[in-house]
Amino acid sequence: SVSTEQQVREPGIVFSIGCGEGLMERQLERMGVEVYGVDPAPGAKDLYQGKYLMDEYPGGGQTIIFNESIEHLTEEQFANIWNKLPESVFVIITNWVNFHPIEPDTTGWDYVRLIDDEFYDRLLYGNRLVLRNGSHLVFEVVEKQIWKQ
After folding, report:
1. pTM of this prediction?
2. How far is CA 9 from the centre of its chain?
3. Which residues touch 142 (CB under 8 Å, ≥6 apart)?
């Protein structure tokens, strides 16, 4: 269950990692949220329909969203993002399918073997869990460890 305090929390500045076309980002903007789409994919600028788009997460913000994107990042891309996160930021990882048990990536690409329980345990170490349900994870960064590849 989610406490009332967590339900009324303002998202602050949101960075959406892997924003694609920007559908979710436009919805957030309509609700008055300042949102920046971040997408390292070469064609992202041609697809994105939101207000802001960057090639790389600059650091900062109060909420970071990985919406169906974390499994597409390489270890280097993920480390670059993780090591720029400020403390007290909320991180939201979600996928359109809530699958569990979480299976490691087997595509042969050099992905961070994301969407597996060991990876989520590593993310949560020293941080405050808000929600963990299958492949969905929400937590607050409290004691950020540098991500070593």
Report:
1. 0.82
2. 17
3. 87, 88, 126, 127, 128
